[in-house]
Amino acid sequence: MKEITYTEMKALPENSYVLIDVRDEGLTAYGMIPGAVNIYIEDLENSPLLAEIPKEKKLIFYCEIGRRTREMEETEPYLEGRDCYSLAEGYVGFVRSGISSDTDKEEKRKKAEESLQKKFHKRLFSPFAKACKTYRLIEEGDHIAVCISGGKDSMLMAKLFQEIKRHRQVDFELTFLVMDPGYNKENRALIESNAEALGIPVTIFESTIFDTVDVIEKSPCYLCARMRRGYLYSRAKALGCNKIALGHHYDDVIETILMGMLHGGQIQTMMPKLHSTNFEGMELIRPMYLVREADICAWRDYNDLHFLQCACHFTDTCTTCHEDGTTSSKRLETKKLIAELKKTNPFVESNIFRSVENVHLDTVIEYKKDGVRHNFLDEY
User: Fold this and answer.
1) Minimal CB count within 10 Å: which of 138, 170, 355, 359?
2) Taking each helix axis from N to C terminus, what angle separates 152-166 and 126-134, rounded to the nearest 10 degrees?
3) What is the pTM of this model?
4) Range of 351's domain?
5) Could you report the per-residue pLDDT of 137-159, keeping only the tens digit for each?
């Protein structure tokens, strides 16, 4: 399919084309190009929305980085007689086009920081600071590696760390750490552009994790996550850090609790901090533990920021472009389930969160402690 750049598209008369986002909801939830309509690529052939678009209008398709739409065949019957294009570099290209000049970057940085100090102070900074205090995540003399993946959560976490350090209540150091496990060039460039625009001085190091997991058929994302954490611990320790910070938020916590019950047959939670078992003296902390995802999204949208859901090189194959047609993860299903339950029970989220704070061992059949299983009959 013919390619067209974002700049070339914007030069066209506005009513001469229709922009079509072919990504699935796992990616479109993280943002779409303004004015685009969403038709998942697997649904294009039978889409009534596509059929209603006048034949004289150009169809400009985009995915995450432009690969999938570039490979679409214009000879498909449902595209016959249409003037079709693939948007070069896809959604990532659009995002990068919005932060091109130094002036743009300085304005974005100032607006993002002012919004944390004023408009979003109560919704973002306060729960961040509360988690840090409640769970004693930041202590005197700490050197924290703030791990940035390129998504909205870790980028906001970096800005919140900068803000809390500005208050100078505790003396600690920060290193903003980005690992490149084999990103494609578009995704790495986007991470670098966003970090520069937000005034986050990142330290980037490279690994070959993606090459390793590329040949894994079963649960490559699980293996990738475990390996990434090990590399982050190792590099952080080498840089003199004693803690690594990850950007998991409140919604991640409650989804993990429910997923454990529904899919793992166990009750467990995502802890606010953990001692590393393989790197002596290192801890993992989650300072976004009490921050709601909806508030993160509101901050992102207010500041017109655009991030990737996942910056790995599977981004163009793991959701929008999945070869086996899989479009929905267990976490996305769980997120939808919680949203549905909330319609009739507005307290369902806080109840799930508090459930692991109110465990009554007298009513538990069995539990594990340090890997040892205990049964209620042991002391009955």
Assistant:
1) 359
2) 80
3) 0.82
4) 330-378
5) 999 999 999 999 888 999 999 99
